[in-house]
Every structure is written in C-alpha cells, then in structure tokens.
Amino acid sequence: MRMAMERIDFVRARKIAENKGLKPGRVKGTDGIQFTKGNNNRLDVITWDEFEKALETRGLAVYESGGWMKIMKK
Known about the structure:
By secondary structure, this protein is α+β, with helices and mostly antiparallel strands. The protein has one domain (about 5-70). It contains 2 helices and 6 strands, in the order E-H-E-E-E-H-E-E.
C-alpha cells in the first residue's frame, strides 16, 4: 500500500534532511532546487536560507512520505 505524500514545514524538512546527511542544492544554471549529499557536480550546495527563499519564491513546498521527501508545487 502506498502512503500519500504529506506537506511538511520547512523546519521539519531541514531536520529530516540533516539527519540523512542531505544539504540544500541548486541545479547549476537553473533555478531548480533539490536535496543533495553534496557530491553531485551538477549541483551547487546553497545555504538553508537560500533554499527556503527559493521554495517561497517559486511556490514550492516539501512533501514527505515514509521518510522520502520531494519538492513539489504547493
């Protein structure tokens, strides 16, 4: 049975990400953002403040299900 993705607040998303060793990242040459372990040459690691601002600016939110997180439109 699949669990539904549930919107979570930024503080919770950051805590889950940090517990998994994930950092905020921006796809080079775009305004795309995603979580990264920091070893992907297509991504630049950015600050959590920049990540949160990008979510707000683009109308995105973090959704979670069973420990998996995904960035999607609000």
